[in-house]
């Protein structure tokens, strides 16, 4: 990292390169006729733009003269109330003293590392893992411990062995237990219980990052780590509206032990004062007027069709050449080539062929998974998905000189 | 700091207590018939709610189907373009490669400390200073050096002496040069030049935090540190729409050396991914349609009348008992009692009398200024200001048993 004569912090080195440059990815994905398998965003048509605009006019118009003022740091009362009500009876049901509204899920992670992590502390993460979440840990100078993921989620035996080898307990265990980013797999119920047990044994904070849990389109619900924890203060849950309603609003929430709330409010004030108030008012109205349930019903069905289209296309074009995960919800599917295919080198060729994805090694701080890649099936129609997968196959052929 | 059995980071101790609890202050200030001198927010009637709602409907409605999607991390192109255009010809004029859109000015500070500060580094701050800005520094484990402020802003001789005593150069010098928070004073042009000279001599990053500069209602403009720096990479400028348009939108910007842009984007991605997109679209339309200039003209005139009303009321009720600063713009006026008046003890009595302010020691990490207080004249009408100052005087009389 060079910046002329500037005295950068030690952590600066780990920042650049540790995130996926979504500004570039975004621009690439907006170029005409690139099939968007890269970014983890909902499809344009999956964002209820018309409803949000309509609800927004009511929520932030003349009827609410304070809609553009500072919000309370812990969240606007209307937003908090609507959210608590919407979560009643779900696996994420919670109470006011556990709830802090955040500027998206990412800020929930930023807050966790801010309040728990000292430089050099160990953070156990899934391998592959959500890169920008890891980047947040690195921005607080975490040392990362990568723990393999299989079809049942994080491998708990491997976690125990890795910690034994490291010779010290992780300060934080970071997991995306449901429809994991990037693999799409879900942690089984026995593993969730085992993971909670280990966190308790070690006194580790368990970050339960679950942005996709409400987007299940197959299989049976599994209780969230939040529910299984039953108030254990070690479990810190991060949630967001980005994947289930709209990412551009930047509204999420943290569900954490009541003893942390003052600290979270103080830390958030030192980050961004408060979360955008019109966005909170808009979401509160969206929840209050009952749009969420219908919206989720539609989305689950759409995402199921898209995942099935992607799997069918993969079977058509990649049978024998690669294998892939079978997510029961969420946005992502993880493809691993049977032979050495450099998915970083493939990336530029794929863009030329008109398809964008994210190379596997971007999801591992150690650069594992050079022959894997992440596909987002949520952003494209089934027809575009079929086209995109065909293009991806052509890119592989070009790479291999076929 | 206790949080049950939770393993908190070392920095957690410095977080709680280092910020002014605005959630409480906000609630207090919203209680019926409390005159709001506490929070540094624009008056409800100073926020162009109707225009924003009107512009917002166009900017985020059906005409812009991607208005609720992720934004580019460096800022939405529409927002960036409108801002660059609006700044042309001003003391804050800048270029695309220097510009990063942030979630309010506070995130601009968070980014600065994230990329420059290592634990234990020295940060020179004004005394009194903006508490939440200091809190951000403390959240990165800064060591603070308080440098006195007089009617010409930060005392540069005192800065030089303090650094000499400390025996090491500050990594960062943090200043609010114009209509400073909390004192309302403005750094003179010679001092701005001297400060730049010292930053260059020491290789210190100079954080030029200027939220109020566009709200001058008296005296002549002084070039910003950004303009005086003429591209010196050591100057890092933080700006926000919170005070000039609306705080609830949480949109600001950082103007920094082009060599920092990639790092800033990476750091911001690890904080909140991107800034709320509808808010950016709304502000872009507000700027593009030329509302800002008229709005600022109105606001400057209103704030002038309010400051004059506050000074007149202070002269009526506090002549001989206290002295106060004479700001030429911005939101705040700083009152220092001539004799020992414990403004912390006064606070509760003042709330009972129906007036809220912030005690002086809240603006000093070392707890200086026990007999001073900050008054925000921006949030109340002249009539309410007269009433609030009268109530403040009654509170002093009650405290002193008169």
Helix content of chain A: 40-55%
Based on the structure given, which CATH architecture of the largest domain in chain A is correct?
A: 3-Layer(aba) Sandwich
Shape of chain A: globular
* Assembly annotation: homodimer
CATH topology assignment of the largest domain in chain A: Aspartate Aminotransferase, domain 2
- Arithmetic mean pLDDT of chain A: 92
Largest interface: A-B, 93 and 94 residues
**What is the C-level CATH assignment of the largest domain in chain A?**
Alpha Beta
Strands of the largest sheet of chain A, in order across it? 2-9-8-7-6-3-4-5
- Under CATH, the homologous superfamily of the largest domain in chain A reads Type I PLP-dependent aspartate aminotransferase-like (Major domain)
**What is the total tally of β strands of chain A?**
14
**Strand content of the residues of chain A, in percent?**
5-15%
Given the helix and strand composition of chain A, which structural class is it? alpha/beta
């Amino acid at each position: 990292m060079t910046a002329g004569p500037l005295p950068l912090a030690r952590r600066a080195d780990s920042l650049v390169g540790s995130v996926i440059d979504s500004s570039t990815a975004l621009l690439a994905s907006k170029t005409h006729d690139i099939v968007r398998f890269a970014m983890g965003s909902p499809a344009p048509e999956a964002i209820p733009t018309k409803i949000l605009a309509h609800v927004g006019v009511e929520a932030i118009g003349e009827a609410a003269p304070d809609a553009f003022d500072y919000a309370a740091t812990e969240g606007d009362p209307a937003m908090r109330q609507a959210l608590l009500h919407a979560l009643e009876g779900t696996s994420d049901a919670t109470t006011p003293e556990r709830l802090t509204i955040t500027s998206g899920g990412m800020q929930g992670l930023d807050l966790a590392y801010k309040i728990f992590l000292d430089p050099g502390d160990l953070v156990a993460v899934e391998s592959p893992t959500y890169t920008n979440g890891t980047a947040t840990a690195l921005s607080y100078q975490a040392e990362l411990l990568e723990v393999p993921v299989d079809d049942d989620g994080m491998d708990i035996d491997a976690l125990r062995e890795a910690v034994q080898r490291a010779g010290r307990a992780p300060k934080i265990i970071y997991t995306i237990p449901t429809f994991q980013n990037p693999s799409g797999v879900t942690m089984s119920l026995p593993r969730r219980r085992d993971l909670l047990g280990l966190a308790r044994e070690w006194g580790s904070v368990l970050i339960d990052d679950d942005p996709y849990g409400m987007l299940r389109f197959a299989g049976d619900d599994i209780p969230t780590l939040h529910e299984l924890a039953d108030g254990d203060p070690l479990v810190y849950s991060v949630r967001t509206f980005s994947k289930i309603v709209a990412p551009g609003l930047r509204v999420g929430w943290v569900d954490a032990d009541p003893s942390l709330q003052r600290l979270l409010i103080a830390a958030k004030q030192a980050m961004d004062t408060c979360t955008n108030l019109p966005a909170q008012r808009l979401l509160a109205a969206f929840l209050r007027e009952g749009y969420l349930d219908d919206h989720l019903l539609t989305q689950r069905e759409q995402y199921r069709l898209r995942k099935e289209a992607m799997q069918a296309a993969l079977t058509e074009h990649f049978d024998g050449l690669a294998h892939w995960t079978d997510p029961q919800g969420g946005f992502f599917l993880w493809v691993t080539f049977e032979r050495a295919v450099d998915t970083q080198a493939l990336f530029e060729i794929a863009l030329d062929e008109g398809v964008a994805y994210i190379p596997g090694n971007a999801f591992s701080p150690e650069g594992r998974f050079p022959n894997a890649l992440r596909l987002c099936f949520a952003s494209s129609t089934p027809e575009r998905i079929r086209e995109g997968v065909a293009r991806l196959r052509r890119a592989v052929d070009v790479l291999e000189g076929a």
